[in-house]
Amino acid sequence: MKASSPKIQRRHLSGVFLLNKPLGISSNAALQRVRWLYRAHKAGHTGALDPLASGLLPVCLGEATKFSHYLLDSVKRYQTTVFLGHSTTTGDVEGEVLLEKAVPELSETLIQNKLAQFIGDIQQVPPMYSALKKEGRPLYELARKGIEIEREARPITILAIELLSFTENSITLDITCSKGTYIRVLGEDIAKALGTYGHLTYLHRIKTGHFDLIPSYTIEYLESLSEAERDALLLPAYAPVDHFPKVQVPEGRAEYFSRGMESNIEHEAAEQVLVFDGEKCLGLAEITDKKRLVPKRVLNL
């Protein structure tokens, strides 16, 4: 009888690792690998990347997961290449060719003029190949069966588009955008504005919120380190909201805060503040107009 492998001893570990996700695996598969390497009880990522996309995927471990939604809602920055001349069923190289059209002669002036049309608040129709749900079923499940349903356009914001380079049949862009933006759809729409069709051949996320990609922070790099060296790479559990104002808990009230209890505080009103007891972060709170410190997210570190 084959002996079973020993069960991994999980740790109550909290922090944020800024993973550089590789091509070819899902965000969840990358997350589970990082969680396994850290032996963490709990882990979550902060905005999925398709298997054919790479780059920054902040992984929240333990108590950091309480702040992960702030990164889900944050501004993202990508570098992408749109191949022109034909569209695909998925909007990227994974799909089958759908429509073809000759590429007009491109110039920097032409491209810049078309890109300018997409800057600001715009409406975007989500793709069928997405995790959005219709009556509880992800749209990509329907798309794989050849079923297409009507999708309502949603508001998004494109903060910046920089043209990095172009060839006779491709453009490479640096895009900063709001949450909910589908770069595949944006690439298709830009191609249509140029008078042709297009699909993505490259997508790489380089920024999420206030976090920048660290290229060396790969799964392979984590695997090469000792556990202590891995732990040293973790940002604090409160790192996703480190840009929020910081206050010290009133003297003698740290334990009360950790129990979710309010306190009086001599501080101006604020919707969101990080509360510390010396160097230790206790969690996130609101300060009311009546100078009451109200716990919102309590950290158990």
Summarize it:
The protein has 301 residues and is of the alpha+beta class.
Explained architecture:
This protein starts with 14 loop residues before the first strand and ends with a strand. The chain has helices at residues 27-38, 68-72, 108-116, 139-144, 183-193, 219-223, 227-232, 254-258; strands at 15-21, 43-45, 54-61, 76-84, 86-88, 97-100, 120-124, 133-134, 137-138, 154-167, 170-177, 198-208, 211-212, 246-248, 263-264, 270-277, 280-287, 292-298. 33% of the residues are buried. Strands 1, 2, 3, 4, 7, 10, 11, 12 and 13 form a 9-stranded mixed β-sheet that branches. The model has no long low-confidence stretch (mean pLDDT 92). It is globular. A hairpin with a 4-residue loop joins strand 17 (280-287) and strand 18. With 301 residues, it is an alpha+beta fold.
Strand and helix layout:
Blueprint lengths: L14 E7 L5 H12 L4 E3 L8 E8 L6 H5 L3 E9 L1 E3 L8 E4 L7 H9 L3 E5 L8 E2 L2 E2 H6 L9 E14 L2 E8 L5 H11 L4 E11 L2 E2 L6 H5 L3 H6 L13 E3 L5 H5 L4 E2 L5 E8 L2 E8 L4 E7 L3
Parallel strand pairs: 3-12, 14-16
Antiparallel strand pairs: 1-3, 2-3, 4-11, 4-12, 5-6, 7-10, 8-9, 10-11, 12-13, 15-18, 16-17, 17-18
